Amino acid sequence: MQREEKQLEAALDALLQRINDLKTSIRTLLFRLENEYATLSWPSVLDSYAVISGQMNTLLKVMKNDKTPLLRNLIVLPLVLSPDPDEELKQATEGRVVALSHDITPDLLRTKPDPDVEQRQNQFEQRASQVPPEASQKQINALNKVVNHVLEQITHSREDWENEATVRAAQTQTCVIQDTQALIAAVGLGKSLKPIPNAAPAQPGPGRAQAGPAPGKTTSTIKTTIKAASQVHPYNR
C-alpha cells in the first residue's frame, strides 16, 4: 500500500511540474499578445505555439507512462465543506478557489458536461444520425478530396521553396557585396568621392578681353574621343 501511495505521489508531482510549465508558457504568450501586439512577429508566435505543443506532448507521455497509475480508477472526495476561506486552497489554486463550499464543489467534482452543453451535444448527435449514410459518405469523400488537394498544393509549394533556397545557396557569388554597396553609396550619395580642384584661368593675350570662368561649371576628368561618322561607319564605300 505504501509503495502504491509513493508511486502515486511521484506521478502527481511529475504531472504538476509539467502542468506548471505549460501554464507558464500559456501565461507568457497571453501577456505578449496583450502587451506586445504592436511589435510581435508571426514567427515568434509560432515558436510559442511549438513550445506549448511540445509541453502538451510531454504531459501526455507522462500520463501514458507505465509508472503512472490509472488516474481514472481513483476517486476524489472532499473531506471538509466550509464556506470559510482556506488560505492553502487559495494558494494551491492561485486564487481561483477561495473556499470549498457547497456551491462550488459540484462544479469542481463534475465528471460530465453542464446540462446545457450536454443537451446541445445530444441535439447535434441526433441531427447527425438523421443524415442518410450515402449522403454523409458523399460529403466525407468530397471533404477528403478538398483536403488532399490542399495538402498536395502545400507540399509542392514547400518543395519548390526548398529547391529554390538550395539553388540560391549553391550559386557562386559573382560580386563582392562590400564593393557593390560602396559603389551604390558613391553614385547615390557621393560618398568617398574626392573633389576636383578648378583649373587656373588662361592668361589673356594682346587684343583679347579677359573672360572669367563660367559660374557653377566644373572641369570633367573624363576624356572622350569623337570621330566622324564617315571614318568609322563599316558600310561606307
Automatic annotation (TrEMBL):
<dbReference type="GO" id="GO:0006357">
    <property type="term" value="P:regulation of transcription by RNA polymerase II"/>
</dbReference>
<dbReference type="GO" id="GO:0000978">
    <property type="term" value="F:RNA polymerase II cis-regulatory region sequence-specific DNA binding"/>
</dbReference>
<keyword id="KW-0539">Nucleus</keyword>
<feature type="region of interest" description="Disordered">
    <location>
        <begin position="197"/>
        <end position="237"/>
    </location>
</feature>
<dbReference type="Pfam" id="PF10232">
    <property type="entry name" value="Med8"/>
</dbReference>
<keyword id="KW-0804">Transcription</keyword>
<keyword id="KW-0805">Transcription regulation</keyword>
<dbReference type="InterPro" id="IPR019364">
    <property type="entry name" value="Mediatior_Med8_fun/met"/>
</dbReference>
<comment type="function">
    <text>Component of the Mediator complex, a coactivator involved in the regulated transcription of nearly all RNA polymerase II-dependent genes. Mediator functions as a bridge to convey information from gene-specific regulatory proteins to the basal RNA polymerase II transcription machinery. Mediator is recruited to promoters by direct interactions with regulatory proteins and serves as a scaffold for the assembly of a functional preinitiation complex with RNA polymerase II and the general transcription factors.</text>
</comment>
<feature type="compositionally biased region" description="Low complexity">
    <location>
        <begin position="197"/>
        <end position="230"/>
    </location>
</feature>
<keyword id="KW-0010">Activator</keyword>
<comment type="subunit">
    <text>Component of the Mediator complex.</text>
</comment>
<dbReference type="GO" id="GO:0070847">
    <property type="term" value="C:core mediator complex"/>
</dbReference>
<dbReference type="GO" id="GO:0003712">
    <property type="term" value="F:transcription coregulator activity"/>
</dbReference>
<protein>
    <recommendedName>
        <fullName>Mediator of RNA polymerase II transcription subunit 8</fullName>
    </recommendedName>
</protein>
<dbReference type="GO" id="GO:0016592">
    <property type="term" value="C:mediator complex"/>
</dbReference>
<comment type="similarity">
    <text>Belongs to the Mediator complex subunit 8 family.</text>
</comment>
